[in-house]
Each structure stands twice: as structure tokens, then as C-alpha cells.
Amino acid sequence: MIILCDTSSIFLLLRIAPGMFTDPRYECVTIQEVHDEIFRTQKFKDKYPWRFDFKPKVRCLGYSDVHSRSYETLYEMINLSLESGVIDAVTGHDFNLSRVDKSIVACALANKYKVASGDASLCRYAGQEFGEIFEGSVSALEVLNGWLEKKLFVWNDTIQAFLNDWKIQNEASQPPGAVKRFKELTGLSFPR
Amino acid sequence: MIWNGEGLKKLLDQKGCTISALATALKISRPTVHGWINGQAPKGFFLLQLCDFFQIGPEAFFSEREVADISIPLHRTSRGAKLTPEMDRVARELAQEYALFFKNSKVRTMVPVLRANIRDKINADILANELRKMAGTDPALPINYQSAFALIEKLGIIAVFRDFPESLKKSKAFYAKIFGHRVIFINADTNFLDLIFHLLHEAVHALRDDTPGATGKEEEAFCDKVASLTQFPEPYILSLAHMIKGNSAANAVIILKSYAETNSHALYGVQKRIDAIGLWPAGINTSSLHGAEANVRKKFPPISKILLSSGDARDFVEQMKTLSPGFITLLACYLPQCSDRKLGELLGLDNSPDASLLREELQRIPQK
């Protein structure tokens, strides 16, 4: 199952698996807008100063791969329906997604990708409105567990240090199920 | 845009198809289709199926609202640049990015200010005096940017800072009414020196939005007049005119430059006013102000520089709280409803890592 990675999950996973976009076994893709966001100069303190070392590693889907007819229809549909007001069943408020968020959802739906995004509202929107065709969302730790299950790399202290950074950087918490599975796979406790 | 249930009924009729047939094809119940026809928007998946069924694009199922959600009366462009349909389209697109945010935020009450139907000097003076009183600035001095923003806040207008798209670059600011909110979009590239006048000009538009016939070139000229009278009180203009009288062109420029620097305003703004009352010395060519104007401008940064001066999200929020407290308060309440990227978009920061830092800061603001 191909996973469309959003900015937040790429920041968490890229150092652990620099080949996530170049080695097909990792089954990860991303789009140009996300790539641009990762390598754009940040206006505030840079939480990820190492990111530029990995620029050649973040390959994205080509324009024609993304902008298919079905993508364009879905994007337009998402845009129009959000504009008219779609209530989030969890919060009771209208969903409000940015241009890039809409592009991620449209791309995931058009290509049957899962989405790895730290943005809960984006994933909720896709699930609520397109549950019949949305392949679902995964957390960064679930992606990592998937790689461990496939034995794509051997866990070592360097990788553990990157994982420890998630806690230091106060990254979003990971689902309890994924935390438990991580321990089963590595014998290590997920840093909390 | 809104879901157009009647449009779906028309499409069914055109296709010679019954509600039952559509329900069967989409594997849903007839009441569900009835609900759509009666105005209940289908969820995205069924909208996709409707597009497939009718072999039609999604726009066919939506229509404009009867009462426009967004209105943008006019733009004031800089130095005689023409207003083009493209500028109008791009401004509308920019305002559209804020539609859901303002739709779901509580409308702020406008402070009642004198409504003048006749656009003459007397009414411009009255309106300007009211605004100056409200700003609470020294009656003999020009309004500075802090007072101008404080006035905007007191009036109940929301100030939003954005990097304007290329085709709007010549605009310093524009006014829009979005779901009842009166909003001034400010080009973040704008120098503080230039901004005050434009901010006041757009504020006058906002105040007069409900006045019948408040559009067109005459209205623009009236807003200019009120903005200038609000920014520069008559005593200030008279005192400058008195000071430069009898001076050489070079000395007059030095005097004007010194006052412009001290009181944060452009030279041309006062030159026009002095000229309008017939006191601009005949021997001083306005082109001699170019160099001084450019030098003064260099001393005043663009707004984006002020907002992002420290590179710290907390300082950014603090600056925003000073310049646009109304917007920041609404945003703090709105956080649960928008993604990080959307938050970044609303704040003119096209970057989700920056936006996630801002979210942390905005969460500290007590919600009203």
C-alpha cells in the first residue's frame, strides 16, 4: 500500500529512513507542494535544521502523475463542498482546509494512497466525506512499524536517537496501538 | 457557493431519469435523494458518484448564494495604476480563503460613526474629526501607525496581513466585507510610512459600506479626502506651510523631511495638502521631494519585517496582538476548526512547520 506522506510525517521519518522516497520498498510518495514546504525558509526558529542535507532524497510525484483528470475533479469537488460548508462530525464545526491540504486529499483519493499526516482534521475530512474510497490514514509510528515488519532496516542507536528527538521536539503523540506494536517489534519502549 | 438541490432535480429531468433510478444506481434510499433535492448536500463520495452518473463536473451542483458572502467595493491602487478585472478576481480569491473563517466567527460590532451622504469638504471634515477623536491622538499631530491600528480596532474592523499576489502588488490594502465582517487586507510588503493613509482610506470604505451609492470614483476621492484629513490635522498642515514659506527649495525639503521622519508620514501627503490650500511655494518643484521621500522611506520597514523581526513565533503573536488584536482573538477561538496549514494561510505564512509553532502560541491566548 502506497503512503502519501505529509510534511509532519516526513520530518519524523526522513532521518530514520533517508531512502523512503527513493527505495520503492518503503512505499512512500509525496507531492511537490509538500516538498516545497519542507525546504522553504522558515520564518520562525528552525526545528529541523538538518532538513537541507536530505533535499536530494525527497523526490516527489511528477506533475502529470498528480494532476490526472480524477485528481482535478476531486480537487474541484473538495473545494466546492468545503466552500459550501462541511461539518466535522467530531468537532461540530465546518472543516477548513488549505490549498495544500485539499491537494493531499485529492491526490490520495485519486491514486488510492493512504495518508501519513499529523493533521487530524485533514484525515478526518477524507474519512468522513470519502470513507468508501479513502484508504485511510496512518501515523508516522505506524509507518515506521510497517518498515520494521518488512525488516527494511536494523534498529540501532542512531535511529533510536532520531526517535528520541520526537519527544524532545514535542511532536504529536502517537496512537497507543502503534506504541505497543513498536515495543513488540523492537523490544524497546517508545520514548514518552 | 452553496449546494444546489434544485439543480440536481433539473439534471434528473433533463436526463429523463427518476429519483428511484438514481437511488438504485447509487445504491442509496429514495429519501436520501429527496434530501439532496431539498437542499441537504451529499457527502463527498456521493457527490463524486453524481458526477459520474451525470457525466458532469462538480460545479454543476453548486450555485452562488443569493446574498454575496464576499463584497469588495473597490481598490485604491498606488500612483495612478489602473484597476483591472484581474486585480478584482485575485482580490476576491484572496478574500475567499477567509470565507469559512469569518463565516464561523462572531461578527464584531461596528462603532457608529457619522454617515455622510453628501461627499463634500464639510462632511469630510466632520468625519475626519470624529475619527481623530476616536483615535485619541494629539490634535496638532499626524496619526502614527499605532494610533491608526488602534482606530481600526476601535471601529470593529479586522486587519489582516498578507503577501499580496503579483497582480495585486500595486495595492497597499483593500477592503472586503466577508460574511458581515469588515476586513482590511494589508499588503505585508507595505512600508509603514505608506500604510497609514491607505489604512485610513480603507477604514472609511468600511464605515461607509452600508451607505447607498458609496462606490465609484467620487467615493474613492471622498475616502482619500477623509483619510488625508484624518491623518494630517489642519493645524499641522498650516504650521508646515508657514515653516517652509520663504525658504529655498533645498531648505524647504529639509524641513519637510525632518517632520516626515519625526511624525512617520510621506512627504507627498503633506505637499498635496499644502498645495490644496494654495500655500505651496511656487518656486518649489514637487520633483525636488523625490530623493528626500526615498530617504525617509528607507527608515521605515515594511510590516512583514516588524512582524517577523525576531524570528520567534511568540513575538510574532505579540506583534499581531498589538496591530490586529481582533483578528488574533478570533483566530485563537478558531484553532480547533482549522488545520495547521490553514492557520498558516490565514496568517500569511505559507508554511505548516511555522504554523504549528504559531498554534502553540495562539493556544495560550485566553478565549473569549
Topology, please?
The complex is a heterodimer of chains A (192) and B (368).
Chain A: E1 3-5, H1 7-13, E2 28-29, H2 32-39, H3 63-66, H4 69-84, H5 99-111, E3 114-116, H6 120-130, E4 137-138, H7 140-149, H8 157-168, H9 176-186
Parallel strand pairs in A: 1-2, 1-3, 3-4
Helix pairs in contact in A: 4-5, 5-6, 7-9
Chain B: E1 2-3, H1 5-15, H2 19-25, H3 30-37, H4 44-54, E2 62-63, E3 70-71, E4 75-77, H5 85-96, H6 99-103, H7 121-135, H8 145-155, E5 158-162, E6 171-178, E7 181-187, H9 192-207, H10 217-231, H11 234-244, H12 249-263, H13 267-276, H14 290-298, H15 303-307, H16 313-323, H17 325-334, H18 340-346, H19 352-362
Parallel strand pairs in B: 5-7
Antiparallel strand pairs in B: 1-2, 3-6, 4-6, 6-7
Structural commentary:
The complex is a heterodimer of chains A (192) and B (368). Chain A is mainly α and 192 residues long. Chain A has a domain at 2-130: Rossmann fold (3-Layer(aba) Sandwich). Chain A is 48% helix and 5% strand. Chain A is built from nine helices and four strands. Chain A has helices spanning 7-13, 32-39, 63-66, 69-84, 99-111, 120-130, 140-149, 157-168, 176-186; strands at 3-5, 28-29, 114-116, 137-138. In chain A, strands 2-1-3-4 form a four-stranded parallel β-sheet. In chain A, α7 (140-149) packs parallel to α9. The two termini of chain A are 29 Å apart. The mean pLDDT of chain A is 93. With 368 residues, chain B is of the alpha+beta class. Helix content of chain B is 54%, strand content 8%. Chain B has helices at residues 5-15, 19-25, 30-37, 44-54, 85-96, 99-103, 121-135, 145-155, 192-207, 217-231, 234-244, 249-263, 267-276, 290-298, 303-307, 313-323, 325-334, 340-346, 352-362, and strands at 2-3, 62-63, 70-71, 75-77, 158-162, 171-178, 181-187. In chain B, α2 packs across α3, α9 packs across α10 (217-231) and α18 crosses α19 (352-362). The longest helix of chain B has 16 residues, at 192-207. The A-B interface holds A 7-8, 11, 37, 40, 42-45, 47-48, 73-74, 76-78, 80-86, 88, 91, 93-101, 118-119, 121-122, 128-133 and B 1-3, 41, 43-45, 47-48, 51, 57-59, 61-62, 96, 99-101, 103-104, 308, 311-313, 316, 336-342, 344-345, 349-354, 356-358.
